[in-house]
Amino acid sequence: MKRLLILLIIGVGLTSCGEYQKVLKEKEISPKYEMAKQLYEEGIETGKNKYFRKAIRLFDQILPQYKGKPAGETVSYMNANAHYLVGDYFLSGYLFERFTKSYPNSEKVEEAFYKSAKSYYEVSPVYSKDQEDTYKALNKLQFYINAYPDGEYFIAANEMIQELSRKIEKKFYEIAKQYHHTERYKAAIQSFDNFILKFPGSTFREQAFFYKFESAYILAINSVSYLVPERLAEALLYYQDFIKYYGDTEGELLIKVKSYAQDIEQRTNTQIEL
After folding, report:
1. Domain map (residue ranges) of the chain
2. Is 103 helix (H, G, I), strand (E, B) or coil?
3. Which part of the chain is the Outer membrane lipoprotein BamD-like domain (predicted)?
4. Which residues, in sequence order, are CB contacts of 126 under 8 Å at separation 6+?
5. Closest by alpha carbon to 236, among 208, 257, 207?
6. How many CA atoms lie within 13 A of 49 on its CB side?
7. Contact 138, 129 (CB under 8 A)
8. Which of 145, 174, 143, 173 is CA-nearest to residue 159?
9. What are the 10-residue block averages of pLDDT along the chain, 274 residues in total?
10. Is residue 59 within 8 Å of 92, Cβ to Cβ?
11. 3-class DSSP state of 171
């Protein structure tokens, strides 16, 4: 009985595979549509990518023929969502975007806007790489939030915006920090200054103020003698900025800041409130 059952399952599988191959070669689009829809629904029900991938092959064949027809909206949505569900995010982002333009009155349009944005979110790279797709995701997510303030995906979209924004912040912060670590102190000062202005609420703000001051301090004490007084005075201004915002904190950064300030005091004979 067990052997018979196995043979039966194999037979059914071969028959199903043969039928699929036959429909792929069909000239009529109606059988392709029916099988693609069936495979798509099996994918939704089982969560198995193999059904979506088979459906996608059929959708690719019939999409042009359904353009402008009543079923075109359904085919376009299923095709975009099949790509989304198998993780083909580069294509699903584009397909959902095209869907929103082709069917702006569809009941699926909110979902399409969200999934287009989320597709770009999914392909957003680590902070150290080019962030073009991150910016695309941010723009699309922000558009969704503005268009659907009471939307089904509002909370999820807002969380993704916050996550992607932190990634952008980290990229700018690390660029400035790299200038500091490679002893390009003028560039570091400018970069940290830009960072502080661009991201006033950043979690890296304290470190940015610290490295801006440290860069100015190191630049000053290693300058030719006639530039030292002017640059130490500038560094002192950055010290005062740090103390203004983080003078009541405790930790290693404040200890270092005060030690640098003491050295500036000794070099300039300037009384500094530590």
Report:
1. 19-86, 183-274
2. coil
3. 36-222
4. 167
5. 257
6. 6
7. no
8. 145
9. 41 61 85 94 96 96 88 96 97 96 96 97 94 95 97 97 96 97 97 97 96 97 94 95 92 94 87 66
10. no
11. helix
